[in-house]
Amino acid sequence: MKIMLLLGSSRKKGNSEQLAQDVLKDVPHTEVFLHDKTINQIIDKRHTASGFTRVDDDYEELLKQFLAHDIIIFATPLYWFGMSGQMKTFFDRWSQYLRDERFDLKAKLAEKKAYLIITGNKPDPKVSALPLIMQFHAIFQYVDMTFVDYLIGTGNKPGEVSTDSEAFQKTRLWNERFRSV
């Protein structure tokens, strides 16, 4: 099983990344920091005869890399009670590639297993992150992708999540699971 970590934070070494690194300690994986990629917004042309306009950015290569993996771990901070902008743009571009005849995207997404890591601070992220978890669930359900589990960590400033023993207890469980895959 090939594992990919998609980091959606706008800063490196943040709390989401810290949890993800603990989950994937000693586990072979591919790591992509979305902020390092040029992923442009698109103009929605689903209902036009010409379809989407081709976009010259890093997305198509990233998508090919993404599709080569079996397990995807999405990690994002809770930004204004939603996913990061980088992560949202990643999903928005699926609209374009679901219609691209070179890809059988929906069928390929249905073969993937998804895990989700969210970190936030106030109000209590164990509650305030639930709508975001529901959003991810709806996205995965739409493309028949298996949503296996989620992890919510509490922290704002870099490193604050290290005091969330409950979150790290779950990272150890996931780590055991991924090392045995």
TrEMBL record:
User: Which positions fall inside the Flavodoxin-like fold domain?
Assistant: 1-162
- SUPFAM superfamilies membership: Flavoproteins
User: Does this entry carry the keyword Methyltransferase?
Assistant: no
Family annotation (PANTHER family): NAD(P)H-DEPENDENT FMN-CONTAINING OXIDOREDUCTASE YWQN-RELATED (PTHR43278:SF4)
Q: Which organism is it from?
A: Salipaludibacillus agaradhaerens
> Which InterPro entries does the UniProt record give?
Flavodoxin_fold, Flavoprotein-like_sf, ISF_SsuE-like
Q: Which Pfam families match?
A: Flavodoxin_2
Q: What is this protein called?
A: Flavodoxin family protein
Name the lineage.
Bacteria, Bacillati, Bacillota, Bacilli, Bacillales
